Amino acid sequence: MARWRLCIAALLATGLCACPAPSLLAQQTGDAGGGAAKPPAYVGSKACQGCHAKEYESFSKYSKKAHSSQSVKIMAPKLSPEELRGCFACHTTGYGQPGGFVSFEQTPEQANAGCEVCHGPGSAHVDSGGDPALIKAKLAMSECERCHNAERVRTFNFKPMLFAGAH
């Protein structure tokens, strides 16, 4: 009987050590209650400007992505709703995702391909006061291929500039 209790105690101790502490769990998920956390949401590039002023200014001034919805607005009257949704997927931020682009009227702050297109939804990063672990900092060309794939490269004459045009 004592041996059985010892085994149970050992299993419990091992299980408790393997589980993250509630404060660490809350930090990773953004949920202080330890329950299911809401997924990070898009907050818009202006939310980045306060801490990343130099990058924001450079992005706004030199990146084509910062003005990517202009071509969609020009072409919109000639496009079907399905074609327009295809444009929104690459020329806006977070289309179809929590906090992402809905329409030019409802979510103008997400109307271009902003910071979060590359760095991911920023709500957790912003809410934490800028915890770098809560945003994607290292980028790879493969992540660009959701929009900049072989078909679009031919169609739109895309030339990759991962480190030259963003910031």
Automatic annotation (TrEMBL):
The keyword Signal applies. InterPro entries: Cyt_c-552/4, Multihaem_cyt_sf. Keywords: Signal. Transmembrane segments: none annotated. Residues 1-26 form the signal peptide. Residues 47-120 form the Cytochrome c-552/4 domain. Pfam families: Cytochrome_C554. This is Cytochrome c-552/4 domain-containing protein. It comes from Desulfovibrio sp. U5L.
